[in-house]
Amino acid sequence: MSSRLPTVLVVDDEVRSQEALRRTLDEDFEVFTASSAAEAVAVLEREWIQIALCDQRMPGTSGVQLLREVRERWPDVVRIIISGYTDSEDIIAGINDGGIYQYLMKPWQPDQLLLTLRSAAEMHRLQSENQRLSLELKVSGPVLTQRVSGKRATLRRRFAPDALLRAPDSPMNALCDLVARIADFDIPVLLTGESGTGKELLARALHYGSARAEHGFVVENCGAVPDTLLESELFGARRGAYTGATEDREGLFRQADGGTILLDEIGETSAAFQVKLLRVLQEGEVRPVGASRPVSVDARVVAATNRDLEAEVRAGRFREDLYYRLAAITIAVPPLRDRPMDIPLIARHHLDLIGESLGRAYRPFDEEILSCLIAYRWPGNVRELRNEIMRMAALADGDRLSVAHLSPRVLRAADDHQEAELSLLAGLDGDLKTRLEALEARIVNETMLRHRWNKTHAASELGLSRVGLRNKLVRYGLERRK
């Protein structure tokens, strides 16, 4: 396959739904479409497809029926069903005998859809890697054992707290120090913050910085799975537990035995499920659906949410006892707009990754581009920044990126920022010298606040000596303000 993007086949008999899904996925995936099961099979026969995203209700062959055939003929394809109906026994059965990886409810949310398909693409990659390693193990034996150990060591280095991208004065430094300090303790951790801020990266740092790093790290997006399916997904199910359960299902908690499980979007779960999860945390055991007795598990639980769980507890939507079980330590991950000093590093990192995948080297960002990136608020956080860099790389002429390649919303934010600065200067009282001194005092004060009053770092950013900075602090009365 010539494309370096993961491939997804969208199967839906409604053209509008096809187009909506294509628009959402186009930047991150190579998208193929089909309007029926027959068209889908034809695409699968001629293209290398990694993910099949199929609507349940279609004329003739249903989505689950199609995915059963896909499982038989193309077992490596990761299968996802999408439907507006939650009570379909056909869907529940398909989770088992159809080998369906994930179930999405209509109306789907773009962020949730992208997160699910990125996870599916990663799962496909890991499956392929495992198959390759298994084959090599039969051939090479001890040699491969050394390779696997080396791969684990690489993961520990890649996801170590010290390896997370941030500037020397970033507020992320304190978070990474905390993660490194608590990684070896089997203490529940709750990660809070907006979507796309890097909560999963911190969870991986917790895992790979601990003694559990030799075992599995498993992720489940609790908000993407209905309650009827989430229990069997996490706790497992016995053969015959419900219609279509033709084989035992291990469950993610048992897959994470000895390792770590990340329960993402934990705030989206129902009260009924919260009771069952609380028992797992209290007893250290899970009861698979249809099983007569529980099974012991030893998995460290890390939870993540973009909700204010304390407010949810006060509103009665989240169990207080479960909250305290999950939040022995709470780590609030700041949004990207609150750490602008990290933006150049993260942007360059993603540009390097894009260049590596394309076999080309891009020149560094110029100051004009960086100023625009820093001025923008990034409501989508790191995920949105990555997509912006991908857009710029796609539009670039050769190896040089230009400010003209930025999206209109980022350019508008830069213009608004400049106008705000000019309005601030024009609104100050006094002659030009007085206004410039007032502006200088604001800049010095803001820089000191960002650097938590570290004079060495602030002086370096402002191009001053420590003595020069101290003189300005005294001159503008800022030492007393501290």
TrEMBL record:
GO molecular function: ATP binding; sequence-specific DNA binding
Lineage: Bacteria, Pseudomonadati, Pseudomonadota, Betaproteobacteria, Rhodocyclales
Location of the Response regulatory domain: 7-121
Residues spanning the membrane: none
Name of the molecule in the record: Response regulator
UniProt cross-references to SMART domains, sorted A to Z: AAA, REC
Superkingdom of the organism of origin: Bacteria
Organism: Azoarcus taiwanensis
Pfam family, one: HTH_8
Keywords of the record: ATP-binding, DNA-binding, Nucleotide-binding, Phosphoprotein, Transcription, Transcription regulation
4-aspartylphosphate modified-residue sites: D55
SUPFAM superfamilies assigned: CheY-like, Homeodomain-like, P-loop containing nucleoside triphosphate hydrolases
GO biological process, one term: regulation of DNA-templated transcription
Sigma-54 factor interaction domain sequence ranges: 165-394
CDD domains named in the record: AAA, REC_HupR
Gene3D superfamilies referenced in this protein's UniProt entry, alphabetically: 1.10.8.60, 3.40.50.2300, Homeodomain-like (1.10.10.60), P-loop containing nucleotide triphosphate hydrolases (3.40.50.300)
